Structure formats: C-alpha cells, structure tokens
Amino acid sequence: MKTLLLTLLIIFIVGCSNAPSSKIPANVVVLVEDSGADAITYDNRAMRRLVSAINSDLSQAGLNVYDETQLFMDDFNRNQARTKAALIDMARSQRKRTLDYVIIISADANINQQSHTTGISTLISVQTLNPNSGRMLGTGSISGNKINASPDCSRSCFIEKIGESLKAAAGDVAAFVLADIPSHSAVNYPSPIKQQTPIQVYSLVFNGFSQNDISDIQPYLDIFSGLKQVRLVNTSQHSTEYWYQSSIARPKLKRNLHRMLNELALNGALQLNGQVVTISKLPKPKKNTKFDLDNW
User: Fold this and answer.
1) Longest Cα pair distance anywhere in the chain, in angstroms?
2) Between 157 and which of 18, 153, 227, 255 could a Cys-Cys bridge form, CB atoms 3.0 to 4.6 Å apart?
3) Which of residues 124, 154, 185 is at a domain's end?
4) CATH value at residue 90
5) So what's the pLDDT on residue 197?
6) pTM for the whole structure
7) Residues of the chain with pLDDT under 70
C-alpha cells in the first residue's frame, strides 16, 4: 500500500512540474479602421495580407488571436461605418468571445510618380485599447518599406507593391502591440535555443525630443540586453544621435525602443533604414509615468 501511495505521489509531483504556466493568454482581435479619406480599405488585398501577418506574429507570441469574420459575420455589417467608435462598439457588444484587447490599425499609401520610376511608401497607425473600459494602452505610427515600381505600374501592380510595403512592417506592428499589452496577459512559452548574435553598430537618431526626454531615455539605452558600448555623437536643439554597439537582435531592439517610449509615456514613430534607427517624437504626449528598469 505504501509503495502504491509513493508511486502515485511521484506521478503527481512530476505532473505538476511539467504543467504549463498558469497565466492565461489574452484574447485579441486586429480591426481595420478605413473611414479616412485616404485610408486603405479593410477588404483591400494589401490590407488583408498585413492583418494576416500581424495575426500570425501575435499568435506566435502566445496570444489568442481571433479573426473579425469569426466574431462579427452574422451580427454586424462590416462594410459600413468602419470608424473607431463603430469598431469598438462591435468588439464590445459581440458575444462569441470575451476580448481583452482590440488592436485598431489604419494605413495610408503615398505614391510619387516620376518619369523614371514610381515611389511607393506606406504609414500604419496603431492603437491598442481595452474594449470594455475604453482605456487606451498605446498609440503610434509605423512606416512600411519604401518601394520603387515601374512608371507605368498598373492598379494591380500598385496593390501588390503596397502589400509588400505593408507586410514588411507587420513585425514592427506586432512588436509595438506586444510592448503595450501587460506581460501577465500571455502564457510563458519556452524560449527557442539562442544562437550567437554578431555585434552590430547602430545609429540611434532621436528627432523632436527635449533634453528632459533624452535624460529619461538614456538610462534605458544603458540597460538594453547585448549592449557593448553607447556613445553620444551629436546633439542639437531638436535632434540627438547615439553610436550604439550591441549584440541585440534587430527585432528585440525595435521592441525595446517601442516599450521604452510606452513606459516613458512618449508618443513616437520608429523607422529603420539599414543600421540607422530614427525615432521621431509625435505630438500630444501622454501623462508621464515611469516604470521599473527590470527584465530588459
């Protein structure tokens, strides 16, 4: 009898030690606001590719990601009034899933036609909020890749090129969203085996930030993982540049910069061009609330 009890106890202990984290993944949905005059419509092929890529990245990060068709198809007209207010109302009043967070995105495309080429660029606006309370967790803008197309690029060609520009920014959008959502909302998954990351040298350019802002930003740059050396190389009234040497992977550097802006309550847009990372301050900063400097 004692042997049986001991065996059962061992099985129980082993089972508990292998049990998954008790943290519950957050339920989220990505919605497209297209009420702006120049906004790309939600049913545009380029926009669908962007949403699909963002959903994939968020799902891989451990969130429960739901498609809006699954949530709204039977009860709402999704082809009309895709304003922010209408999207929040649909997310709040649907009863198929309890949503913890809603990510509202909108995108604009800029087309510059010249005799020798056509320049295409995109800008994605992102807002993360709690649909029940209406509390805004974060808002910002992310630039897609700048792409060149033939001067006689057709409509289908434009859609394809715009889709390429938008999809290239999906990882940045997901990183921005993940920086806004509290870490306790997602399950802790085991990290993949880390490979040695080569040393990179970046130029971090902060545009439009005050000296007080820079004083708050500096301690974060010093604690980012993989840091080898950081040096101030240029400063002026409206621009500050750092020479930044680190083994940090590029996606994590962008994710850390987004999180830094969020924790310092600074609105900013981040653009990466080669090894130059430009962080531009956006107007209407939120109330300044500092967080701890752990877990970077």
Assistant:
1) 89
2) 153
3) 185
4) 3.30.160.150
5) 57
6) 0.57
7) 1-23, 81, 183-197, 284-296
